[in-house]
Amino acid sequence: MADVNLFLLQLFTGLALGSVYVLLATGLSLIFGMLTVVSFAHGAFFMVGAYIGVYQYGVTGNFWISLVVVPLVVGTVGLLTERFLVRPLYGRGIDYPLLLTFGLSYVLIEIVRIFFGVQGIPISTPEGLRGAVNIGVGHFPLYRLFLIVATAVVVGGLWLFIERTRFGLIIRAGARDPEIVRVLGIDISRVWLLVFGLGTAIAGLSGILAAPIRAVTPEMGIPVLVESFVVTVVGGMGSLAGAVVAGLLVGVVFSLTSLYAPAFAETSIFALMALVLLVRPQGLLGRAGLMG
Amino acid sequence: MEAFRPQVDFIARHRVAAVVVFLSLFPLLVPYQALAVNILIFGLYAMGFNILFGYTGMLSFGHAAFLGTGSYGAGIAIVHLGWPWYVAIATGVAAATAVGMVVGFLAIRARGIYFAMVTLALAQCVYYVFFQAETYTGGENGLRGVEVGVIDLFGWRLDFVDPTVKYYVVLAFVAFALWFVSRVLGSPFGAVIETVRENERRAQACGYDVARTKLVAFVISAALCGLAGTLRALHLSIVPIDSLHYLTSGLVVMMCLLGGMGTFFGPFVGAATLLLIEETFTNLTRHWQLITGVVFMACVLFFPRGIWGSILHWIRREGR
Asked: Which of residues 168 through 197 in chain A touch B, CB cutoff 8 A?
């Protein structure tokens, strides 16, 4: 029994870890699905979100405020990025926005180093979310449970927003055929602006949510960027359901290999990606030909 | 410019000789020799990358994997196996070529923008593999003791510790690589890779095996970056784990674009520019990467041709 319980606990740990991946990949996918832009600054926005959140938490002592402030601030940075840096590059080839956001990640990392130093800063688990609860198979850290719930709320809210609102309808239409949407008299560039802002806001939010379980350093966004790319490739680009399934899958694969074969924990998710590329290059839930 | 037309054409026709002559005189322009060696090695790294990015139109974000594998291959051959330096170089290049085949085989299945993400992820995987094989690679501390004091060339002994000698030994390899790249680009294969860059579908329709062309370009590119890696290991006498880092992959993208992608000499211009920025500003501020990032963003936004590419464009327009 003990073995089964250990397995199930580790499975839950994987789901909590995967929740962060789900949020990151959702933001990436949203931006890509609309703008066909892969944001290489996504990891840097994650890191900026963590720093702003930790700073805010230190000033007011209230973690919950961060969950509102961080998406607003990082989302605003995202809006400015799209408007002034990415927009001039539309129509100039798919690589240019990618290269630009790569340069931007350099700049963001360095700005954070200037303000907060090159060392990481510590963050304690927020009050009220400390300790562990019994989930039937053993004790599980409350904060990780909170991560799973928070992710479910954000992704659920996003799904309702895209599927059930008028603006969501425009987003869906714009992802399919921006030209027709423009012909129908909708200012598509404003939609792109807002979607980019929304995607970065989610990246920032995942940064502060992940901060208590990860070390907060200026470079924290780099492995996160790579991992969210793995998730996106596994799940299929531009698919929200794919982001959710692949995010959780990658989290679980990572946590289970760290339990049973710790030496291969880091490389296991890449093996998963390689397998998906060989068997289903468009990703588990991706549409073939979308990447063409 | 019209008056210099014959001279410009002459240089363009003898591009390998022209670059080698320039690089032979280059140390006179640089504050110290170790920096010149660095520029040469990173120029070679960027040139290898340029074959894929500039000429085939595939943006890889994982070329540190080949630089690093080349370095570790040569380093392990010298430190653990005690092999002579020239065998070490061959080992490093062979290792990088092998890794290039595996990564390339997987990555070319992903098209367009996916390709950059997949190469980045696979390079990170290579990073973890070397990081964890601590017995052979030294893990986090890097592989130390890649010492080559004297280079024995058919009884002719060269003091490799002397920076000037080191520069010209490295230049000999770079000259070979320049000749090789020039031949590849001038061959029918060179025309095919540029066709793939311009219009993949049309290349396919013309009967070219696009997937194979891409893989061959990828492997050639990996081998050249591996060569740069082996030379870097000999130059530094240590293989830092950073050789495999994401930022080292990013650095070569910046060098290539800044210098001028798809130009013969651009990668060296880009490497020199970035390393000189680093050299100049590290003494003034520890945040020199801010300047690198801003310069690169400005380049993407306003000068996508890069420095050398813009100069070439200007010469050609004037000539008309």
From this structure: none
